[in-house]
Amino acid sequence: MARKENADSTANPGRLKQIALTYKMTRKADSKVGLVVAAVGIVTFGVFLALGFWIDHPFYLGILGFLLAFLAMAIVFGRRAERAAFGQMEGQPGAAAAVLQNIGRGWTTTPAVAMNRSQDVVHRAVGKAGIVLVAEGNPNRVKSLLAAEKKKMARIVVDVPVHDVMVGDGEGQVPLKKLRTTLLKLPRVLAGPQVTAANDRLRAMGDLMSNMPLPKGPMPKGMRMPRGGKAR
After folding, report:
1. What is the mean pLDDT of residues 207-227?
2. CA angle 178, 184, 189 (to 5 degrees)
3. Of 78, 97, 159, 162, which one is least surrounded by beta carbons within 10 A?
4. Where are the transmembrane segments (predicted)?
5. Sequence-ordered list of residues with C-beta below 8 angstroms from that of 83, at least 6 positions apart, any chain
6. Residues 52, 61 contacting (CB under 8 angstroms)
7. Distance between CA 128 and CA 106 in Å, rounded?
8. Each residue of 40-55: b (16+ CB within 10 Å) or e?
9. Cα 223 to Cα 212: distance, rounded to the nearest angstrom
């Protein structure tokens, strides 16, 4: 019991610190986040409390209103924090990789399976929808990079569907904030063992960046492809 209590007391400050840090980062991009979240909580609690007085049960409706107000505040804060995070990542090299690495269970992400000297990059995600190649960079340059990688995937895993997505705000492109939703909406056509088999074949093939350590999240702006490397 004592160990469990100590673990809980250690974890709580960590969570609170993380929430505080997230709030500070969100406020830099969204100065009204505190007012909006507080307003949502007050209005939600006020509506339920007023309803409680109206039906002569202010105590019970007040407790319910408090709980629902807290839930509503958490949802609104989470959405605004996510929007602020996407706004800060947008346009940075490697931003798509950061989104893919947080897509959720059932997906295996490999950042930078193909890259050129101009930092145009193709990332790969494998899940029950098949293989998804996600390109980010200059649309004119990255098209050939994406086409070459897609052709290679079709040769290696002939029985697995290969999708391609280009991140951006132009015509035919997918905005960064909608990337995760776009992948999750793809039809699931593979079973778990088929996904594992596809990952094994791709892992055996090896990737362009397999021997280069990559930071989690967006890549540094000064990063360049090694002179000895070749774009795929």
Report:
1. 46
2. 145
3. 159
4. 33-53, 59-78
5. 30, 177
6. yes
7. 7
8. bbeebbeebbeebeee
9. 12
Q: In 10 A of CB 146, how many CB atoms?
A: 22
Nearest of 143, 122, 104 to residue 209 by alpha carbon: 122
Instruction: In whole angstroms, give the CA distance from residue 40 to residue 23.
Output: 16
Closest CA to 136 of 175, 96, 109, 169: 96
pTM: 0.60
pLDDT tens digits for range 18-75:
777 767 777 776 778 788 888 988 999 999 999 988 998 888 888 998 999 999 988 8
In this predicted model, which residue has the larger pLDDT, 134 or 91? Answer: 134
- Per-residue confidence (pLDDT) for residue 227, from 0 to 100: 43
Comparing CA positions, the residue from 228, 132, 22, 42 lying closest to residue 123 is: 132
Distance between CA atoms of residues 2 and 8, nearest Å: 10
Distance, in Å, from the CA atom of 111 to the CA atom of 136, rounded to the nearest integer, reads: 11
206: alpha, beta or left, given left = phi > 0 and alpha = psi -120 to 50? left
More confident of the two residues 199 and 86:
199
